[in-house]
């Protein structure tokens, strides 16, 4: 918090938080402490900055829970894991700051990220490594849950728009146009790596509280920010 005062920034992108979903069941207190409690303390210092013009939070569609229909920014929150509960709560808190103190926020909720430099435990780089090393990859359940993915360059362009073009007190969804099951994604990576799917894949139990579907409606970002994804998985 002292560092924030010293820098006295005009624009902030908030990427702080516990980012893994499944481990949040093992110690929910850690997720609530970092993603809600500690962040709320930091936000108290941020909102007092005289210099602040825009605060952008990188949010998650996990707050909406599983949904078979296209999710809009106005959809109700329905979190199903401690991870998602913590992100839902801080989003509500930020909305309150906007109403009570005119805190200049924008929230972007992004589909699953992929790109160069991503942590190696994430699904796309992890499957690629397993293909190259011929190590086994354990697929949760039957891999039937569907997700959309968004490439790093598309995230950067969205962040820039949130910082400098989006109005304050706004929220936007950002996603690629493809909806793909995790099973299909893994098979696609195996094909591109010339690896026999059955050679490296094993199936484990389904993850507790795992949402089946996310389908983000990004029409608001297209209409108001003229944003659309430039990259696809294929």
How is the secondary structure organized here?
Layout: H1 2-7, E1 11-14, H2 28-47, E2 54-59, H3 82-101, E3 105-110, E4 112-114, H4 123-133, E5 137-140, E6 146-147, E7 149-151, H5 152-164, E8 170-174, E9 180-181, H6 182-192, H7 197-200, E10 201-204, H8 219-225
Parallel strand pairs: 1-2, 2-3, 3-8, 4-7, 5-10
Antiparallel strand pairs: 6-9
Helix pairs in contact: 2-3, 4-6
Characterization of this structure:
It contains eight helices and ten strands. It is an alpha/beta fold and 234 residues long. Strands 1-2-3-8 form a four-stranded parallel beta sheet, sandwiched between helices. Helix 2 links the parallel strand 1 (11-14) and strand 2 (54-59). The protein is globular and about 60 Å long. The mean pLDDT is 94.
């Amino acid at each position: 918090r002292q560092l924030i005062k010293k820098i006295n920034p005009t624009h902030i992108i908030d990427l702080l938080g516990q980012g893994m979903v499944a481990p949040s069941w093992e110690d929910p207190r850690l997720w609530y402490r970092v993603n809600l409690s500690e962040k709320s303390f930091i936000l108290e210092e941020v909102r007092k900055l005289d210099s602040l013009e825009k605060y952008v939070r990188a949010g998650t569609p996990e707050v909406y829970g599983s949904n078979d229909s296209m999710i809009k920014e106005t959809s109700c929150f329905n979190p199903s894991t401690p991870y998602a509960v913590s992100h839902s709560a801080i989003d509500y808190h930020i909305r309150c700051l906007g109403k009570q103190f005119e805190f200049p926020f924008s929230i972007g909720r992004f589909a699953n990220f992929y790109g160069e430099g991503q942590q190696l435990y994430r699904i796309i780089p992890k499957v690629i490594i397993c293909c190259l090393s011929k190590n086994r990859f354990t697929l949760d359940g039957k891999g039937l849950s569907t997700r959309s993915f968004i490439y790093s360059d598309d995230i950067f362009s969205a962040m820039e728009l949130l910082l400098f073009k989006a109005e304050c007190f706004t929220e936007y969804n950002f996603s690629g146009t493809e909806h793909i099951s995790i099973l299909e994604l893994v098979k696609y990576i195996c094909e591109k790596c010339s690896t026999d799917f059955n050679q490296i894949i094993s199936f484990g139990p389904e993850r507790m509280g795992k949402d089946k579907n996310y389908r983000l409606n990004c029409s608001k970002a297209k209409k108001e920010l003229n944003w659309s994804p430039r990259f696809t998985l294929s």
